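Subject: sequence -> structure tokens, single chain

Hey, anyone have a minute? Need the predicted structure for the following. Not urgent.
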Amino acid sequence: MSITGWKQFTPFYFVTAMAVCLIGFIGREGLSWTEILLFVTSGLLSWTLIEYVLHRFVFHHDAHSEFGKNLLFRVHLSHHENPSNTKILSSLLISLVIAPAYLLLASVVTGSWRGAFYVLIGVAAGYFYYEWLHFYVHHGRPRLRLLRYLRTYHLLHHHQTPELRFGVTSPLIDLIFGTFRPVDDSTTPTMSGRRAIHRLRRLHRSKTRGAKLSG
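Reply:
Had a minute. Here:
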């Protein structure tokens, strides 16, 4: 991957520095290392659920208003039309909106603001991994078998099944929610981004017509 490509991650360098400062500020007073590890791991695992819900139910939402359609296209569907277009900064801005709400919820669940901050650090770690992996599968050439599998899995979401395979960091979340489809050596992404967009819109229209008929 070129140096120019890595420059897209510049915002994360600043956020990482802020996270390190935050850890130093909140410390671990009243928390054992086991509790800290549990909080961070919980945040890391919860990211996969956040990723799935955002990707499936928000970014692939069937918007009816022109404003909603334009917003979703700018935020996500433009990436489906042109998969090489990976806007890292826009995803970061969305995360800055979600983070305070998540922190408040984590403080209620853990009963501790200090514990909630460590959970949020775990979520941030999961998000950073997602952004790196997402960028890498579109612009890199993985050598590890696992990364090659994840690359093929995600590209199939783009080019063949935009209504399935929503997990980027892990296909296990798709397995849980019934949107998993296996990948074998003979599976090759072939559909163009524009055709995938048209297929996704056709699926949305058919669902809308089905809902009207059932109503």
